[in-house]
Amino acid sequence: MLPAAVMEKAQKEMLDWHGSGMSVMEMSHRGPEYTSIAKQAEADLRELMAIPDEYAVLFLQGGASSQFSMIPMNLLRGKTKADYFNTGAWSKKAITEAKKFCDVNIVTDSSDNNFTTIADKSTWNLSDDAAYVHYTVNETIHGLEFDDIPDTGDIPLVADLSSTILSRPIDVTRFGMIYAGAQKNIGPAGLCIVIVRRDLLGNTVENTPTMFDYQIHDANGSMFNTPATYGWYLAGLVFDWLKQQGGLSAMAEINQRKKNKLYAAIDSSDFYHNPVDKQYRSWMNIPFTLSDDKLDALFLAEAKDAGLLTLKGHKSVGGMRASIYNAMSEAGVDALLSFMSEFESKHG
Ligand SMILES: Cc1ncc(COP(=O)(O)O)c(C=O)c1O
């Protein structure tokens, strides 16, 4: 979901942005109008996340998936090894791409437990000579989320924050790099945000294409080529909306209440089930199954009739998944809870 207020604002400004006589879609990305939109969006994101000046904030294309390759290209810096946590489907994709560039050491592997928990940190196999350590903070498909930021000492920590960015405050200074596809908590698909410490840049692997070099994007204000201008604009509207909501601490309170009530309802029922270890449950993506999977199709059909959409779980996991990103209101979660309770009393 995107906040309705954001979409209404975009609708109002669609044909004529602030009396400019142009839609944002029609602007030159180098013109003064668009430059002001782009700069404001970056400033608002920096404010919301308290991003220090020594970090570049890049507005890129190619999704989080392109970063799976761009990370080793940019951050190996002459080293031949990187550490990766394998906690789910997105970790796995990042590992596959990194293996094309370096030796990958797996810090811990949750495939043994079907990605339902993360082994205790005392068992983690971190290397002394890794160029960086990569982890997926929240595994969107499995609903498995780290409850703490791993301590990697002086080795830069790289975080795929795609499905949990902006859901609560996070200490950016703990990371060498953070990246996130926009299409969850930031804005529409087509934009990917990279926040990277500038001292890590400028030493790409040989033959890195110019478009895959973070330093080039930083030096050009993310306008080495034409950026995803409309997505960047909408992201800016979302950042402004977040500031109006009270920023990330306020979002954290709401998000915590939302996920707590959903997990409480699932855990107190014999009809619904979530397999994830309580310590590592996602704030944003809550997969659950019904006691009888023959009822799945009926659940989805009745949910749709009740106005509750896109509840089908990822095909690799099955069942249902409630993705309750920032724009999903507490009332929306309450509506889902009432529906689940009614469905259980009818069919349980
Ligand atoms: C955690 C995570 N990483 C990476 C991706 C891939 O993002 P994109 O589709 O923007 O490449 C997703 C997409 O859902 C995701 O949830």
Secondary structure elements and pairings:
Elements: H1 4-13, H2 32-49, E1 55-60, H3 63-75, E2 81-86, H4 89-98, E3 103-109, E4 133-136, E5 138-139, E6 144-145, E7 157-160, E8 177-181, E9 192-197, H5 214-219, H6 229-244, H7 247-267, E10 272-273, E11 285-290, H8 296-305, E12 320-323, H9 330-347
Parallel strand pairs: 2-3, 2-4, 4-7, 7-8
Antiparallel strand pairs: 1-9, 5-6, 8-9, 10-11, 11-12
Helix pairs in contact: 1-6, 2-6, 3-4, 7-9
The structure holds pyridoxal-5'-phosphate.
Pyridoxal-5'-phosphate (PLP) is lined by residues 63-65, 90, 136, 140, 160, 162-163, 181, 192.
Question: What is the H level of CATH, i.e. the homologous superfamily of the largest domain?
Answer: Type I PLP-dependent aspartate aminotransferase-like (Major domain)
Given helix and strand content, the structural type is alpha/beta
Number of discrete helical segments: 9
The largest β sheet comes out as: 7 strands, mixed
Helix content range of the residues, please? Answer: 25-40%
Top CATH class of the largest domain:
Alpha Beta
Structural overview:
The protein has about 350 residues and is of the alpha/beta class. The chain folds into two domains: about 5-245, 3-Layer(aba) Sandwich (Aspartate Aminotransferase, domain 2); about 245-345, Aspartate Aminotransferase, domain 1 (Alpha-Beta Complex). It is built from nine helices and twelve strands. It has helices spanning about 5-15, 30-50, 65-75, 90-100, 215-220, 230-245, 245-265, 295-305, 330-345; strands at about 55-60, 80-85, 105-110, 135, 140, 145, 155-160, 175-180, 190-195, 270-275, 285-290, 320-325. It has a seven-stranded mixed β-sheet. Strands 10-11-12 form a three-stranded antiparallel β-sheet, with helices on one face. The longest helix is centred in the C-terminal third of the chain and has 21 residues, at about 245-265. The chain binds pyridoxal-5'-phosphate. Pyridoxal-5'-phosphate binds near residues 63, 90 and 140. Pyridoxal-5'-phosphate binds near residues 64, 90, 140, 160 and 163.
